[in-house]
Amino acid sequence: MGITAAQALVKGLEEENVTKVFGYPGGAVLPIYDALIDSDIQHVLVRHEQGAVHMANGYARISGQPGVCIATSGPGATNLVTGIATAYMDSVPVVIITGQVATSMVGTDAFQEVDITGITLPITKHNYLVKRAKDIPRIIKEAFYIARTGRPGPVLIDIPKDVAASTIEYQPVEKVELRGYKPNYKGHPQQIERAVRLINKSKKPVIYVGGGVINSGATEELYELAWKAQMPVTTTLMGLGSFPEDDRLSLHMLGLHGAPYANYAVTNADLLIGLGVRFDDRVTGAIEKFAPQAKIIHIDIDPAEIGKNVVVDVPIVGDLKLVLRDLIEKLEPQEHLEWLEQIEQWKQEHPLQYGNGDRLRPQYVIEKLGELTNHRAVVTADVGQHQMWAAQFYKFTRPRSFLTSGGLGTMGYGFPAAIGAQIADPDALVVTVTGDGSFQMAMQEMGTAVEQNLPIKVLLFNNNSLALVRQLQHFYCDKRYTAVSFTGNPDFAKFAECYGAVGLKIETRDQVEPVLKEALNNGRLTIIEVSISEEELVLPMVPNARGLDEMVQFPFGEEDQCE
Amino acid sequence: MKHTLSVLVENKPGVLTRIAGLFARRGFNIKSLAVGETEDPEVSRMTIVVDGDDRIIEQVTKQLNKLVDVIKLSDITHDEFVDRELVLIKVHCDASNRSEIIQIVDVFRARIVDMGRNSMIIEATGDSGKIDAIETSLRPFGIRELVRTGKIAMVRGPKTRNGEA
Ligand SMILES: Cc1ncc(C[n+]2csc(CCOP(=O)(O)OP(=O)(O)O)c2C)c(N)n1
Q: Which parts of chain A register pLDDT below 50?
């Protein structure tokens, strides 16, 4: 029986167990939208294509399954670009379907034509321009396979309108055959032996964990490994939640705005075990001063990450879940009493802290949010000071509970990611921590959240400022502040109300608990606008070109603020 | 140091862009790149000469291997291989030096493929050393135009691209 290629596409999505897609229509995707009508797949209509791809990202990071989004050719496709790059940098499996002008028009600068496969070449794991309708079933199958296996990432499929509309004989594809794509899952036994020997010898080991552990579903193995050899664990921004932050072995986050004791531990370690990490510059500070005394074991599914930024003593390519299993089995139980004592001392002397006083402090709000949600909410964060406070003070206890754009640092990610997250897990309590700057890059998606009936809580820290940039100007531009103040911000609580959502405000310290409680329990889409000072600082902070142990810390000046 | 990479890729549109783009984006330095179909029409072979220290070459090979369209990559730098390059050189000449040029062409077992009043085109094949040498020898006469194909290479002995003997 013949069906259209667009129908075959939808069938292919169904075969991949896709139940939701996020998208925005247009002329070049008419056949695809038409085919969706007859499917059980639910289409979530967004307000801006960037929202669609961030939602697919949030959906994927919560569900562990590829998120899917659709956009039309030309401007629809280019509006996706930031979101695709965001997913690429954070290794998130997203399948992106774009319409293209008809085959006969491709290459003629036709209306709404853009070379989206060319544009996204460096920011997709792979992409396709479909030229023959009969290839659709195979390409869909491959795209999902590539997106979710190995190191996950976005895969884009660009489909010309005439291709989508043409009729094919549908043949389901059973198996993916890709000669050039064979991820390696099993770690090399000899390298694992070498890693075991290094761990057995180590007096001052630190485990350094990134998003790869969450992608691999290896958090239980991580916990077992850490306790079997009593090794403290620090995570990157992307790794938050992979190891419970209320555990004695937790060192919390390391790096640019990491916990002092995490940074001291790494600097003094004799062994660093990097799991699903990429030794990013925000983590390492000045690379030549990073873990200077440590032997390095690096385990990752992507061979290209190993040895890219640092020289590694024991490289292991494989899936963390499998490799850690092997490692745990071979490892003798160990204690590192002296080392853990030293770390305890650092924790006492240099806690993650902020100045006190009666002022309403954003860090306090995040701490309260953590308490009131039992540290088990799904938190999405945008980019800015608020993001770092969320990372520092929420205290995450479970994987897939903190979503933020770690690699690209994309403002406007948090709210649409929360929508995707809430759709993936309707029962979850989803909170977006955002700033007035970031939220205004995505606040048109309020309409989407209202339509979908999502009880998301938007905790919006309003400092009428792009305060993380202001902080940079404070430290690096001699306090010459420019282009960081907003004087035309709306009343965000009222903004919520005009969508029929709930708007609440927190202006003093004693309002924090009651207002948060009200918001968390009202079962409705809610914006909580928290008024804070633009002079707050995110500390600790490792200045440019410094080592991790050279942080600027609280207490900082009289008021702990920049003026 | 210069490395010679022999890369089997899917013979599909856009593959060259993917590879060239990767080199540009990551700041790798291609010295030459030659590409053509193999005995299997679905597969092309690229011979890429790239310059860099060991760390860079390691990154180049790993990043290339990540491309879905790259089927197999071998760094044959330290293998025994035969390599060839083709060059066309348009050299300035006149009655006074024509015979001298023809002598050079003979020494290098090159060929004259076009002859004009003031210039001739010389075709030569050989390994990169030979091509460099003929270029140097002809330079004093005035090279007006020069085009090189870039190197192609094949490992000696019974081993084939699939590693089978
Ligand atoms: C799309 C985008 N543009 C610019 C930046 C640079 N940038 C990083 S943080 C920041 C300020 C964020 O302001 P806001 O969301 O209000 O957060 P705050 O720092 O005030 O908490 C800017 C402009 C970015 N990360 N992303």
A: 563
